[in-house]
What does this fold into?
Amino acid sequence: MNRAAAVTGSVLMALGLSIFAWKTLVLQLPVLPSDVENLWRVELEIEARGSGQRGSVRAALPSSDSEQEVFDERQTSDRLVFTIRTERGQRTGVWSGKFDGVHSISHGFRVQLADTPPALPTELAQKPPKAIVEAYSRGTSRFPIDAPEIRELVASIAPPAPDDPLGQMRTLLGYVTDEILTVATGSDDALLTLTAGEGSHVGKSRLLVSLLRAAGFPARLAAGLRLRAQKDARETVWVEGWVGGSWIPLSPTLGFFGARPPDLLLLKSGSATLIEETGLDAISSRHRVLRESLDAKEVASFMVPSNPLLAAVSLYRLPVGSQAALRILLILPLGALIISVFRNLIGLRTFGTFMPLLIALALRELSLSLGLSLVGSVIALGIVSRLFLDRLQLLLVPRLGVLLCVVVLAITAQSLFGRSYEVKDLFASVLFPVVILTMLIERYSITSTEEGPGAALRRLASSTLIAICIYPAFRIDALDHLMFGFPELVITIMGALVAIGGYTGYRLAELWRFRSFTRAPDEGGL
It folds into this structure.
């Protein structure tokens, strides 16, 4: 063992573990994530461009209700004035001022969505307040409740039912859901949707609002986000109808009645427009989401610890996009440590130093069996293609280019196969490291020629084994939390790598290879 490397590695490991122990024992930060469900970090990012005129950007902000609890709101204003306005219970964030050039503004919050839906109202005979009737019962150009088609349809399929208003609402919902097709390019107009028998999400929702109002129910549009882990949130629209003293959510496109799904966040009621602007030349926006593994108190302990230095460097204060990227990057040192153990202590040989790590990284969104099958099929096709290319005696760069084309075509074929047979996981194959697979095929062919097919297969098996061992690191929530909440563990990993790098003894594979030299000689032998 290299003494300098051993001392340096020990110091680094002690330093990292000391910081980790201080944060967990003294500051009492949680070591393991909680068993929390439906806690999300949501961030709205807006890019607004102006030409020196005064203007404003207005964005719908969520409120807490029986199905969602909003907390930890933060925003950036980029030289603008930010205010929150509340009207009829609807919160709106307003950025106003002189828009000169491009402004990057944002609003972020955490939200806990309810797992258990609220009970349906029982006091069904309760009359709606006058303000709700005046605001959400009248006909407009968008909700033509007095149109003959609307009136005739309501009378034929859902006549008045004073004893069962919820049943009447379900009947109207069932008609729009089953009889009107959902088409992304369909009309947003209620009457055109009814006439054509198809419409967009907004068109079907407006039609349902019109039918409910024509049947005597106050109704309105609602808009929000479908929250999906590690993906941008998708804006969607649904309907709310008043009955029994409360608003009942229902959707002809998402298929729910009485309660919102556990992945649906309400941002605005009364309109389908989430962001509006005045006085600007251009605007773009997106909602980013990140599923949290800590409860609200634990998140607060990481974001605002008692030590001001830790509060300033807490990764939980970063934007959602940066957090998602860092959660992956901070796992990479752990993968490098696993590779070092296998190569330097056990003695396995791989194709490329970090190829197993890159393969495991590419497969993190897939099941292990499916991912290895996809990679194996691409590699097998590439090896067969490489055998044919040997006969052409091509130069290195054109040969690698042809192999690259084969890999790309194989991944494209997998995606088309997944689309045809509705296997969504196959779509993720487009994320495979194409260049790495190409070089792997080339190295396998060269090793097979120089050292024999057996040696090439053993090295391929070693690479696969190490990738399998690294794969769980990207899937275990506890490791994700540890590396992201305690990045000082990277220093500990550095120390372990330095110590491994200074090891000069026998590897396990060498001990097994030369095991015959350790056996006692036979009696009577020389």
